[in-house]
Amino acid sequence: MTDSKIPYTRMDVCNRSLETVKHSRNLGMEVLSAEEEGVRVRLPWREDLVGNPDTGVLHGGAIFAMMDQAGGMANSCRLYPNFEITPTIDFRVDHLHAPTPGKAVVCHATCYRLTEHVTFVRLTTWEEGKEEGEPVATALATYTRMKIDKNGRVVS
Amino acid sequence: MTESLKALIEACRQGKADYQDLMDRVPYARFLGIELRVQGEELTFVLPKNPENIGNPTLPALHGGAVAGFMEQAAIIFILLEMGEPKVPKTIDFTIDYLRAGLFRDTFAECRITRLGRRIANVHISAWQKRREEPITIARAHFLLSEENN
């Protein structure tokens, strides 16, 4: 669904949401790609995001926050060119193994089902450079759709 | 677990160290600005309102991820203090339900251990802003209690 008449791309939409969401910016998140089938997002390893100071492993919460945001962007990619706010209903993450300290992680999120009021999202996170191998975390989430008008007001 | 961490936990239990020191060892806890309030032996975790944790600038509302990270870290500290012989809790899974928007104000959390096994802990975490009876989020998590450091 590529329409050259639409003056903005899915990548623009995702970058725009990163710009406005301060906490995600603070995490150092970066959008790598944004297509109809999903979004790819990177979270750097940073000392202030560490959960265990004795090992240097990233905190599960930092990985969670990045994935929750990636899920929202997956919704935007699916809803493109329309724009809606999609608050999270529920989110479950499994931490399969700890990412190597010092290594960034990359999340792929896809909205695999869109209904009138709810979106269903699947997410996988790998250590950067090991996207073909075992994921570090997988997640399933649902979000609710809040349609907004031109003035940014919630319609339904 | 390192000897220095074991010693700090023991000192906290005996009232010789501040629980906040235990929290502040964790870089991500400082990143979010998590605080701790102790009443007797009861622990309440606090995520003070902070513009850095905003997710929706229009409402404004806290980032759901910041609230989740806060709750996960609260559970980790809670388990550390509950175990007779402390081991490092590693998150196996974390499941959260968002019930109300997290407004731009202080957020509180309390933890309840549903089961503390030898290797696995099951914890329920509840977070609220206005009243405890009106949680903004509830979460359930499993932690692996590991002898090792990594």
TrEMBL record, chain A:
* One GO cellular component, as annotated: cytosol
Cite the GO molecular-function annotations of the record: 1,4-dihydroxy-2-naphthoyl-CoA thioesterase activity
Coiled coil (UniProt feature) = none
Family annotation (SUPFAM superfamilies): Thioesterase/thiol ester dehydrase-isomerase
Q: Which UniProt keywords apply?
A: Hydrolase
Q: Which InterPro entries match?
A: HotDog_dom_sf, PAAI_dom, Thioestr_dom
Q: Where is the Thioesterase domain?
A: 56-132
Gene3D superfamilies cross-referenced by the UniProt entry: Hotdog Thioesterase
Q: What top-level branch of life does the organism fall under?
A: Bacteria
Q: Carries keyword Hydrolase? A: yes
Hydrolase as UniProt keyword:
yes
Mind telling me which PANTHER family this protein's record contains? 1,4-DIHYDROXY-2-NAPHTHOYL-COA THIOESTERASE 1, BLR7284 PROTEIN
**Name used for this protein in its record:** PaaI family thioesterase
User: Which species?
Assistant: Alloalcanivorax marinus
Automatic annotation (TrEMBL), chain B:
Q: Which domain of life is it from?
A: Bacteria
Matches recorded under Gene3D superfamilies:
Hotdog Thioesterase (3.10.129.10)
InterPro entries hit by this protein: HotDog_dom_sf, Thioestr_dom
Q: Which GO terms describe its molecular function?
A: thiolester hydrolase activity
CDD domains noted in UniProt? PaaI_thioesterase
A Pfam short name: 4HBT
Where is the Thioesterase domain positioned along the sequence? Answer: 62-134
> Mind telling me which PANTHER family this protein's record contains?
1,4-DIHYDROXY-2-NAPHTHOYL-COA THIOESTERASE 1, THIOESTERASE DOMAIN-CONTAINING PROTEIN
Q: What is this protein called?
A: PaaI family thioesterase
Q: In which organism is this protein found?
A: Alloalcanivorax marinus
